[in-house]
Amino acid sequence: MPGFATYLLGALGAIVIARLVLSLFKRPSLPLPPGPKPVPLIGNIHQLPKSLQWLELYHWSKKYGPIMHLSMAGQPLIILSTHQAAHDLLNRRSSRYSDRPRLVMAGELVTKGMHMLLRPYNGQYRLHQKMEAPLLTLRAASNYRPLQDLESQQLLWDVLGEWDKFGEKGVDFHHHFERAMASTIYCLNYGYRLQTGYEKELMDGKRVQAEFARTGQVGAYIVDSFPSLNHLPKFLAPWKKEGEELFELERQLHVGNLRKGLSSGKWNFAKHMKASSEAAGMPEVELAFDLGILADAGLDTSTVALDWFIVAWITSGSRGWVKKAQQLLDEVVGKDRLPNFEDRPKLAYIDAIASETLRWRPVVVQGVPHFTKTEDEYMGYHIPANSTVLPNAFAITRDEAVFGGDVDNFIPERWLAEESANEHSDICGFNTSALKDLPHTGFGFGRRICTGRLIARNQLFIQMARMLWSFDVEAGVVDESTGARHKVHDMDCTEGFVTLPKPFRMNEYLFFSRWDLTSQRKVGRNLVLAETIHR
Ligand code: HEM
Prior knowledge:
Number of domains: 1
Structural class: alpha+beta
Distance between the termini: 67 Å
Oligomer: single chain
Strand order of the largest sheet: 1-2-6-3
Largest sheet: 4 strands, mixed
GO molecular function, one term: monooxygenase activity
Keywords: Heme, Iron, Metal-binding, Monooxygenase, Oxidoreductase
Cofactor: heme
Number of strands: 8
Bound molecules: protoporphyrin IX containing FE
Order of helices and strands: HHEEHHHHHHHHHHHHHEEEEHHHEEHH
């Protein structure tokens, strides 16, 4: 009896030959966009490095220009590397470019078509978008600020507490950022807070996310390159069993959380969605996944943005932006209270720091792929039907035509507008007259743009303002064996869907209080509040 490998090779061979024959008959009149030369059958797959692919795509964009074509074993991959190109196709022609490429493992087996980020652009996707929409508007986001205010107070409290406990050994700020964001989003979604960041729900949620990053990786599963392999029986397709196990892990987490939310005495997204007309007749598991993915999508992204903010602080803060921000905070806020959302119109510089963080180190550095089912033309090139279309995030955020010069450096000033007599802030306090209307490409494009971006912006503002107000940060606890201080390199990062700075483990960063926060803890308005949180 032929073995698994023989079946696999036979199936692959048939698919590749069919693709080749089809491509010979369908010759478009316009050329494909330029790109590195593909080889027969596998195309450009072998030229993509195993690690830091986004950096290679950035270098290629310098050689091949704003639109590139790669062949992933015959599957066209179009890469957009300037803001103009991404805007023209993904924003302006969004009716054609809002689909997602098919991911058999992560999208169909592990999440059974219910992952919002991976859903094809169809009626069911739009139903879910409609169900979420009222909870994610600017007005809705403005209502969540008291919760973000509270969570950011606990953040300071936790950092201070750890400083008291470990002193010179450093502070695990990643954990505290993660707890604050997770607690915000779990409270909104399900009506319960996460006070330690070690709760079982969060641990399971983090495992689900790690599995999503792993199973969704390009090349991780052969079935993603050759979806017809999924027709193989289970005993020849080992990924199916793995998919079932991962689905069960995720189902239990999301359904458990949904039930908790619905039985909670407090208002939350779960209750609101369940009562919506869109949810009428929707299976419990589908509603649970909608909420669960919303929580997953918000957690890592916002936490990582704050991690990069600390890296920028350590590696480029001495160039003046930290001092400038702290002087502004001292003028506007003083030292007897914490900055709050009411101060935000006067603290546009803090929002400029948040925007610059998302530009300087885009959280999803390789971009989130879109997909088009219809063929198209752009800049004199042919875009084939069924192309994956990737906004090359690292290149786009370095587009000098949009963001000005010195793009590799952290310069919040690039976001500041000329002084204007007509002051205007939105209802969340974001000062629209003091800040330039530059594109926030870190949140993606078109109809698939990040739906949680307003909540995220509020979270970044309050946490960055309060961290800058409270602390000075230094890198590098002394390494006991060598006696040298640990150096932080601003490009040192992990691989994966979101890109974390390295190292982000404990004992690497020192946070020094700017004020005598110990005495404030007894008498200060805000830290007394923080004590209430802990009770
Ligand atoms: C700094 C924080 C964040 C960043 C940088 C970020 C970034 C992104 C990006 C790049 C996308 C893909 C857009 C595209 O395909 O063009 C996305 C999608 C998404 N984000 Fe965010 N995000 C953040 C926070 C959040 C938060 C707090 C939530 C939830 C409250 C959220 C929920 C979502 C959802 C549900 C999607 C899927 C949208 C779709 O495919 O239709 N995100 N985000």
